[in-house]
Design brief:
mainly alpha, 2 helices, 82% helix
Amino acid sequence: MSCPRIKAEVLWRLRDRALLMRASETPQIPACLRRLAVVLAVASC
């Protein structure tokens, strides 16, 4: 699998999760998303 494809898939999942979290309106959303973003940045090519 190529890097661009992986990144696209990851972005879709991130957006999905962000929408789900916003829907549930949990106070800890920003921290979770920030941690997730850091992990993805490290894992990306």
